[in-house]
Write a structure and sequence with these properties.
UDP_G4E, single chain, binds uridine-5'-diphosphate-glucose, UDP-galactose 4-epimerase, domain 1, carbohydrate metabolism, isomerase, three-stranded parallel beta sheet
Length: 255
């Protein structure tokens, strides 16, 4: 950072850092307990940034701990198109809905949750984007490393998510219950209070909006993005994106 004159940054961290938290909802004071290599890698990066900021007071950073970002730009031009078989539940469900995959495997139905499937705090990617805009605008106020949760505070089980996506696309999506996935935890739900107090930022898009926008992207891009990005038609231009969808403040209500 110092070598390149970059004294401030926004780090994309993850709720997975918290692991099996003692209290739900989870605030930023909860001790990190990563349960898989991805979560650990995020935790290690946060510590490196914190050490650098301690050693060199001119350095400062926000670490934004995303809960589970899903959804797409409401224009349907930008969305999630993982390479190969999706590892995350929302893009997997989208590919089942569009007919590219047969059925979802739900990893575990014996978690200590209301319906036995794991609970996550899904957050619309546009809400995540808006939080980043605020973070960039307010980077000058930060000293050291400040961590903030980006979540809604609402927990949704895998079965509830399957039902919500099924309602959006108008068909009942098939699934099987299989073994738990190693490294998964039962429940990750944010206490988003710190970002609200600090920035006045709150999410404005609910689960129905997340499903609707993800589904619109999938319908408009049934086979995903064209891999050949040299073809001009494959690249959405800033003008082709609805400017109203990226407001400064206040945020629109996409419920
Ligand atoms: O085919 C699947 C995929 C996932 N799940 C379950 O769905 C939930 C959500 O899983 P997933 O979408 O893979 O996200 P997480 O593992 O909760 O979170 C990881 O993936 C997120 C999206 O990239 C990141 O934001 C997080 O930081 C990272 O920990 C979990 O209970 C999974 O067990 C299934 O049942 N079947």
């Amino acid at each position: 950072m110092r070598e390149n004159g970059v004294h401030r940054l926004v780090f994309s961290s993850s709720c997975s850092i918290y692991g099996e938290a003692a209290r739900i909802p989870i605030d930023e004071q909860a001790p990190p307990r990563p349960t898989n290599p991805y979560a650990r890698s995020k935790w290690v990066c946060e510590q490196i940034i914190a050490d650098a900021c301690r050693q060199h007071p001119e350095l400062a950073a926000y670490s934004l701990r995303y809960f589970n970002p899903v959804g797409a730009h409401p224009s349907g031009l930008l969305g999630e198109d993982p390479r190969g078989i999706p590892q995350n539940v929302m893009p997997y469900l989208m590919q089942v809905a569009i007919g590219r995959l047969e059925r979802l495997s739900i990893f575990g139905r014996d978690y200590p949750t209301a319906d036995g499937t794991a609970v996550r705090d899904y957050i619309h990617v546009m809400d995540v984007a808006q939080a980043h805009r605020i973070a960039l605008e307010r980077l000058d106020e930060v000293t050291g490393l400040e961590t903030l949760n980006l979540g809604t505070g609402v927990g949704t089980s895998v079965l509830e998510l399957v039902r919500a996506v099924s309602a959006t696309c108008g068909k009942s999506l098939p699934y099987d219950i299989v073994e738990r996935r190693q490294g998964d935890v039962a429940k990750l739900v944010a206490d988003p209070g710190a970002a609200a107090r600090k920035w006045g930022w709150r999410t404005t898009r609910n689960l129905a909006a997340m499903c609707r926008d993800a589904w619109r992207f999938q319908l408009l891009n049934p086979a995903g993005f064209d891999d050949d990005l040299t073809r001009p038609a494959a690249i959405p231009t800033a003008r082709s994106l609805d400017a109203d969808a990226m407001p400064r403040s206040p945020a629109p209500d996409h419920r």
